[in-house]
């Protein structure tokens, strides 16, 4: 969440409920600190990564590419309902093998036989993103 949005939300809450200004401000500062810490952890971890490519169910992580210098290889394009052609599947598998990708990242609400097939083809494990957490 962008810092401007966080601040706008906090300021709006304070204007609507000034009696709880201290609580909103405290929560805002706590969230801000947590997100800065998480951002730094991502930057530190990814700066040490040998490979910066990730295989994802669909192209939903452009902001990670810009912010952290990674490349997302998406199985289903921009939409979870898009199906790749046979040639696109071959290219995805080749690219995943070239970059030694060991994991496929899925959102908890996305299920795809195509993603499962690619994961199986390259011998990768699945990681599921659930409400800002990765589950193995």
TrEMBL record:
One GO BP: metal ion transport
GO molecular function (one): metal ion binding
Pfam family of the protein (one): ZnuA
InterPro entries assigned to the protein according to its UniProt record, in alphabetical order: Bact_metal-bind_prot9, ZnuA-like
PANTHER family: HIGH-AFFINITY ZINC UPTAKE SYSTEM PROTEIN ZNUA-RELATED, ZINT DOMAIN-CONTAINING PROTEIN
Name recorded for this polypeptide: Uncharacterized protein
Origin species: Bacillus safensis
């Amino acid at each position: 969440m962008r810092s401007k949005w966080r601040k706008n939300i906090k300021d709006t809450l304070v204007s609507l409920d000034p009696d709880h200004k201290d609580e909103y401000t405290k929560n805002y500062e706590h969230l801000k600190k947590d997100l800065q810490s998480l951002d730094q952890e991502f930057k530190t971890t990814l700066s040490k990564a040998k490979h910066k490519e990730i295989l994802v169910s669909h192209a939903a992580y452009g902001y990670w590419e810009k912010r952290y210098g990674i490349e997302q290889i998406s199985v289903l394009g921009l939409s979870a309902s898009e199906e790749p052609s046979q040639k696109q599947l071959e290219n995805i598998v080749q690219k995943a093998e070239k970059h030694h990708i060991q994991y496929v990242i899925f959102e908890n609400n996305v299920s795809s036989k195509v993603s499962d097939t690619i994961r199986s083809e390259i011998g990768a494990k699945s990681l599921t993103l659930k409400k800002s957490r990765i589950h193995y």
